Amino acid sequence: MPAYKDKVTGNWYASFYCRGKKHLKRGFKTQKAAKNYENQYKAIKEGSSEIKFCNLWDEYMKACEGVYKASSLHSKQYYYDAFIADSIGDMKVVDIESIDIKTLTDNMLEDNRSKKTCNSVIQQINACISWGKDYYKINNVERFKCFKITVKERNIWTPEQFNTFLSRIDDFEYYVAFSMLFWLGLRDGELLALTVGDIKGQVVSITKTYSYIHRISSTPKTNSSRREVTMPTFIAKMVHKLIEMKYEPEPTDRLLSFDNPSNFRYYLTRYGYGLPKVTAHDLRHSHASYLIKNNVDIVSVSRRLGHSNPSITLKTYAHAYNDHDSEVAEFIDILKKTADDELKNKKF
Questions:
Q1: What is the DSSP letter of 294?
Q2: pLDDT digit string (tens) for 4-40?
Q3: Based on the domain organization, do 30 and 116 belong to the same domain?
Q4: Measured between alpha carbons, how far apart are the two ends of the chain, in Å?
């Protein structure tokens, strides 16, 4: 159907039938805009190959609601608004080719965006199109390749380096917070979500994580992230002292008075001078590496970190095992010497 002009307002409107039902939409500034609306509406409702990426994205995000956590939805929409919308948003999905994605990522790299960020954008595009293939005639659209990235090993601190950092902090609350990150291996969101009721004796119950963007505590990263972490005695004493300093604390009161993870970055930058540069998450890696180097079995480390499978822990901390290579060689030397001694005493 053609678009129509409203004689009263001077604007255009679309009036058409789709799947046996009449649809009316007013308020378009131009006839072209009204016709485009009709075409895209029909493309969406009839599963047409004519659908534009921007419209497919809107449908995809509606489907994601209730499936993904608020923080994940926010991240998806951020990548779309910041990088995707202006590049391929107005293109028909079936017309998007690898060269279009290359142009998009080339522009991002010129703006000093990392390959990791480029990959996140490509992954969102692929996820949207993959979802759309079940509903629209876009099966011929290819899956776009991500950059190959060499994963850099994270910096970690030894207990001695951590103590150097800790000795420079005179705020007791932050002293306790960083001690929990390093000695318990918590994620920063898990620490920020803790309430007084989560502390029972020497046990910390991890049942939620905190999203600073939405100022809410939600379910943990994975089901395996729900866990109980036993505190060493010296950490437990610190934590209970912090709770005692609060005025009539309720179980639902947050353990820490701050909720912004950037506070961690500030302290690590200000007081971490002369030490390897680390993030709050690197303290978690430091904890795991320390346990592994001290021969704590991989299953126990995996459970303490809240990994769903020990293989994840092995993959993440393989470098810590590589550092044991010289120790393995020394161990074999000892075994060989013992075997040789036994062989000398052997009587046939």
A1: T
A2: 788 778 888 777 666 556 767 788 888 888 877 777 7
A3: no
A4: 103
Q: Are residues 186 and 270 in the same domain?
A: yes
Strand partners, 22: 17
Place of tokens 């609350």: 173
Q: What is the CB-side half-sphere exposure of residue 229 using CA atoms within 13 A?
A: 30
**Which are the contacts of 94, defined by CB distance < 8 A and separation ≥ 6?**
49, 50, 137, 138, 140, 141
Which CATH number goes with the domain that contains 194? 1.10.443.10
Provide the domain count of the chain: 3
Which of 97, 120, 150 is at the close of a domain?
150
Residue listed under structure tokens 């320390």: 290
Q: Are residues 86 and 143 in the same domain?
A: yes
Structural contact between residues 237 and 265, judged by C-beta atoms closer than 8 angstroms: no
Tens digit of pLDDT for each residue in 130-179?
998 888 888 888 899 999 988 677 788 999 999 999 999 999 999 999 99
Which stretches within the chain are classed as H helix?
Answer: 31-45, 53-64, 70-79, 85-88, 98-110, 115-132, 159-166, 172-184, 188-193, 233-244, 262-271, 280-293, 298-305, 310-316, 318-322, 325-344
Give the DSSP letter string of 106-121. HHHHHTT--HHHHHHH
The pTM (predicted TM-score) of the whole model is: 0.68
Is residue 346 in some structural domain?
A: no
The candidate with the shortest Cα–Cα distance to 82, out of 70, 71, 74, 92, is: 74
Range of the domain at 40: 1-46
The answer for residues whose C-beta is within 8 angstroms of residue 1's C-beta and 6 or more apart is 14, 15, 16, 17, 38
**Are residues 171 and 146 part of one domain?**
no
Burial class (CB in 10 A: 0-12, 13-18, 19+), 240: middle
Distance (Å, whole) CA 47 – CA 51: 8
